[in-house]
């Protein structure tokens, strides 16, 4: 939803690079989320770790974009860092925390299984 809102409401042609970077980051993390869901279903901890690192990178990119847009122009702040962007960033940070907790729990369970055998 955020990408559709960004594309339809973006009027300024001067900072298209930031919008393209935002959309590219969203698409890349969507691929990693799809692979991460496969990793959770197949119980592969290496894929879940890859998802965890990609989510951390995505959150960092989003926060940097938010800071850069806030410092550049007022119109850029309204067109790129709108409500959907902020909501998506907050949910991404929440998802990252939950993924890290899940990965740590799986790692702890796998160590217990190895000790029991």
Helices and strands, with pairings:
Layout: H1 2-9, H2 16-42, H3 45-72, H4 74-80, H5 83-116
Task: Please provide a written account of the structure.
This protein is mainly alpha-helical. It has one domain. The protein contains 5 helices and no strands. It has helices spanning about 1-10, 15-40, 45-70, 75-80, 85-115. The longest helix is centred in the last third of the chain and has 34 residues, at about 85-115. The termini are far apart. The mean pLDDT is about 80. Keywords: Membrane, Transmembrane, Transmembrane helix.
What keywords describe this structure?
117 residues, mainly alpha, 0% strand, transmembrane helix, transmembrane
Concise synopsis of the structure shown:
Helices cover 89% and strands 0% of the residues. By secondary structure, the protein is an all-alpha fold.
* Inertia-based shape: elongated
Tell me the strand percentage band: under 5%
Report Rg.
Answer: 17 Å
Beta-strand segment tally: 0
How many DSSP H or I helices?
Answer: 5
Which structural class is indicated by helix and strand composition? Answer: mainly alpha
Largest sheet: none
In which range does the helix fraction lie?
Answer: over 70%
Transmembrane segments: 16-41, 48-68, 83-104
Keywords: Membrane, Transmembrane, Transmembrane helix
